[in-house]
Design goal:
Blueprint (H helix, E strand, L loop, with lengths): L1 E6 L8 H13 L5 E6 L7 H8 L3 E7 L7 H17 L5 E7 L9 H14 L2 E8 L19 H15 L7 E3 L5 H18 L12
Parallel strand pairs: 1-2, 1-3, 3-4, 4-5, 5-6
Length: about 210
């Protein structure tokens, strides 16, 4: 089986989407799997990338939520792929999608997952499953915590279920997950991060509240 892991984050490195794909990859790697990695950081794909993606059996997208939807650069890439897949008319390609957001609640990703489902319908591909992941902002700091442990217990269970569907070319209900970490503690950590960032940029805490 040929599987494409597609990181749709605009970040060149240290992205939550990358962390999620690495954890999923550990579950699906086997002798029967030919796994390729793609990074869609820019709104343009080259002809070689498009051709290779049309030859895959499974496409797995991971990307961050932007304004309750798909990041614009990734949307441009999907438009290019749409034309290519319609042209080759290969309808047995399965699509799985993992969307992470800064909100604590995973269900905030619901609309973006529905957008990907609609893209599959228009493109003629088969929808496999979507996973909405809350508190994506903390995933990078937890990359050394094994999936299924501590604050990543729920996430690990969902990834295991998703990996089983992928390996069996199966489909599943869209799933939404929140971390095993108190909401108030996540909020405090996020606020601390904002204060650290604004100080590093030569501003003061009260500048966060300026209205212009």
């Amino acid at each position: 089986m040929k599987i494409a892991l597609i990181n749709g984050s605009p970040k060149p490195d240290n992205s939550a989407s990358g962390c999620i794909l690495e954890e999923l990859k550990a579950y699906i790697e086997s002798e029967n799997m030919m796994i390729s990695n793609y990074n869609f950081r820019k709104p343009q794909l080259n002809a070689e990338e498009i051709e290779k993606l049309t030859e895959e059996d499974v496409l797995i997208f991971a990307f961050p939520l932007y304004v309750d939807g798909i990041p614009s650069h990734l949307l441009y890439c999907l438009t290019q792929l749409e034309e290519a897949f319609i042209a080759v008319n290969k309808k047995d390609i399965l699509v799985y999608t993992l969307v992470n957001c800064g909100f604590y609640e995973g269900h905030q990703n619901r609309l973006a997952i529905e957008m990907m489902e609609n893209w599959c319908v228009k493109t003629g591909l088969k929808w496999g499953q979507g996973v909405g992941i809350g508190a994506g902002g903390m995933l990078q700091s937890l990359k050394n915590v094994p999936a299924g442990s501590g604050p990543k217990k729920n996430l690990g269970e969902v990834i295991r279920q998703l990996s089983d569907n992928i390996k069996n070319c199966g489909t599943g209900e869209n799933t939404f997950v929140t971390p095993n970490f108190p909401r108030f503690a996540y909020k405090l950590a996020a606020e601390m991060g904002w204060r650290t960032s604004i100080k590093a940029n030569g501003l003061r805490r009260k500048d966060l509240f300026l209205k212009k």
